[in-house]
Fold this protein.
Amino acid sequence: QVQLVESGGGLVQAGGSLRLSCSASGIDPSANAINWYRWYRQAPGTQRELVASITAGGVTNYTDSVKGRFAISRESGKNLVILQMNNLIPGDTAMYYCNIWNLGGNYWGQGTQVTVSS
């Protein structure tokens, strides 16, 4: 059974940093597995937004609003995905969700709340 657990959210002042972690079980973490690791976020009254992604091969992509501030990474050989968030702004306030997609399915965590105060 696949399970994703996020951690690291919280309340931070604008300009601060947070480090989100996503630990997954039940998914083959080997480099040959076609896993696509992603972080999404959703603020109240808005659609879920793709924030950052990283492939099993390490190719990363970011939405424009977080480029230069956020960094996604993955521990090699493990299903542990990190989202380092720096220089946070109130517009980053949202529930953040970890997502893993592969040929076997599309898996979601329960989310971790990030709140940035001005």
